[in-house]
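Following up on my earlier thread - several people asked me to post the actual chain instead of describing it. Fair enough. Here it is, all 401 residues.
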Amino acid sequence: MSSIMNTTTAPASRVNRQADFSASNKPADFSVEEDGKGVRLVLEGDWRHSSVAGADKKLHAFSADDGSRPVVIDMSGITDIDTAGAWLIQRLKGELSGSGADVRIEGAEGEEMALLEAVPEKLPEPEFEEDGRRTRFEKIFSPVGKTVFTLWDDIVASMYILGSAVRGAQLKLHRASGASPAAVVSQIDYMGVRAVPIIALMSFLIGAIITQQSAFQLRYFGAEIFTVDLVGILQLREVGVLLTAIMIAGRSGSAITAEIGSMKMREEIDALKVMGLNPIGVLVFPRLVALVIVLPLLTVVADFFALFGAGVVAWSYSQITPDVFLSRLQSALDMSTLISGMLKAPFMALIIGIVAAVEGLKVGGSAESLGQHVTASVVKAIFVVILVDGLFAIFYAAINY
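Reply from S.P.:
Thanks for posting it. Predicted structure:
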């Protein structure tokens, strides 16, 4: 009696089937019986993937030689069959039907017929892009156009997330309920407090390097004391907030994308919608609020440690004592220098959070997609942060601030 190969069968039964095949089953084969009414194709043997190679070649020859006579495919002699054998039979049926022959299948049991119906007669042809028909202009500018459309979709998604967060931190749709303070505090601890060591170390080294290089160059002009002015203004206006935002984009932005992307892969975001919860309010809003709070504070920490590193190097490398360093720093800086740098921090925080959330919500169902969007999140956030910093610089220069 014919049976269908089941991929969920226990390993022991598969071993027994292999033993039976070596003992009694013969490879897939068929015989042709002709009469005045047509042709009967009698299939026999094991029609599984391990034993159908010979029958495949013979079937090709039969379908090529046969005309438009009625054909009956008799499956009563088959001992075993799987999808490979079923596809060969369906392919033969399709080729014969295409040549005008009337094809019928006999001797197949219910499960075998279900397997045959599940297998297509012809595999779909792969779609290849015909580059030869595209002009050179299209080949060059088509990727640019796709990038522009992708950028527009990202802008729309970003505005949606920002609008949803501003419209309401409600946890439930159509209900004015505030965001959980515990969630915001938890994100502040994760994104802010735990980031202090790496921000402090990075800023200390950056301040020390800038001071050493500035002192080395200004020494030739006898203006080594102006190193303090250069480091103070550069750190407070530009470097402090910019490098802090870049570090947060790499550290916290990637984490936001990975967390939201993992929830998207496990369909937890869909579950929130089913429960009537707003995913933006539950997942994105607390992270945005935490970023807006911690980035300015981390910028203050970065400025302090950068100036501390600058003071240490100025004392050891240029013999500028701490008293002279602080006195010169106080005369070189004013409140506008500090404010001009701190004003950028909330905008950069929003950019990092929104870009990370957008990329997280775009994650598909594979680990490869998650890795791609985490990488895209960090790259895009850093690029936009630097762009915004440049726009602020142009704006400050225009208003002479």
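The mean pLDDT is 82. That should answer part of your original question.
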